[in-house]
Amino acid sequence: MQSKYKTPLTGLFLLGTGLVTITAWREDDPITQGLLIAAIIGLTTLAWRHLSRRAWTWTVPLCALLLLALLWHAPMTYAIGVWLWPIMLLAPQPRPMRYALLVTATLGWWHIQAPLGVAQTALSGALLTALMALGFAKAIEHNRLRLELERRHRLTPENSLWSLHRLRQDLNVEWSRRQRENVYAELLVVRPRQRGHNARRRLKERLAALIYVFEGCYHVDTQTFAVLLISKDEHHAALRRDAISTELQEHCRIRIAPVAPHLDPVKLGHELSVQDSGLHVRQETTDHA
């Protein structure tokens, strides 16, 4: 999935970076040049990090502020930039940010319409309104598709990780199975001590090698993985827990809890993120055997 979509987007952002670079090189005003250079940095970041939600989080507000400043400083020279606002709505961002884009687009349009006639002002305002409405509609559709993707069982066909939605389902299934068949199930959440894609990839490979084929490895958040460990009794569960912890504890932080009603993997992952020790095992308070 990443290789399928990354190349066109990277090329698009690099093309935009090249166009802005040429514009900045031909510009004489130092303030405008500074704004364009900042835009080049933002576009270059998105060219290589557009799959990262964090990159979008700070790049979209930055680009919006830069565009507004550019329109305010040189409104007639860069008036065409007002049509970039609807495109910004399509980027991944929280809803309040889209409302902020609507406000900044209105301010930018209001500042460039002063030299225009009444007919041109009305036409540009109506067209910008229609494009912003279309951008909002597309953004809502993209959010719906993203939520549907997150609810799929596997995040991608070639990914060995299951989704958080599937983990919640499997927790309920294993709790019912534990009651019915008297097996023992534990949820192990693990977080690499180092950050970065390579650390997560190595951890995912280790987890896949340590679990049985009928057990699942899940994606809780960007840094946290989870594994459902299924054993025939508490003794065998303790042996597996110790073996896996010994293998992973040097490079990861681990938190383990027995499967129980209302066990929340997200809350468990948050507790893991603030955990001081390398390993924490939550003891069971009630005997369910």
DSSP strand content:
5-15%
Question: If you compute it from the alpha carbons, what radius of gyration comes out, rounded to the nearest whole angstrom?
Answer: 25 Å
Q: Could you give the distance between the termini? A: 44 Å
Quaternary organisation of the protein chains: single chain
Helix/strand class: alpha+beta
SSE series: HHHHHHHEHEEHEHE
The general outline is elongated
Helix share, percent: 55-70%
Q: How many domains make up the 3D coordinates?
A: 2
Please, what is the average pLDDT? 78
Q: How is the largest sheet built, in terms of strand order? A: 2-3-1-4-5
Which residue ranges are poorly predicted, with pLDDT under 50 across at least 5 consecutive positions? 1-7
What is the helix tally?
Answer: 10
Major sheet size, sense and barrel closure: 5 strands, mixed
Count all strands and give the number: 5
How are the SSEs ordered, and which strands pair?
Layout: H1 2-26, H2 30-49, H3 53-73, H4 85-88, H5 95-112, H6 118-151, H7 164-181, E1 184-192, H8 197-210, E2 217-219, E3 225-231, H9 234-248, E4 252-258, H10 265-273, E5 279-281
Parallel strand pairs: 4-5
Antiparallel strand pairs: 1-3, 1-4, 2-3
Helix pairs in contact: 1-2, 2-3, 3-5
How would you sum up this structure, described in words?
With 289 residues, the chain is an alpha+beta fold. It folds into 2 domains: 2-151, no CATH class; 164-281, Alpha-Beta Plaits, CATH 3.30.70.270. It has 10 helices and 5 strands. A 5-stranded mixed β-sheet has the order 2-3-1-4-5, with helices on both faces. Strand 2 (217-219) and strand 3 (225-231) form a beta hairpin. The longest helix is centred in the middle third of the chain and has 34 residues, at 118-151. The radius of gyration is 25 Å and the shape is elongated. The model is unreliable at 1-7 (pLDDT under 50).
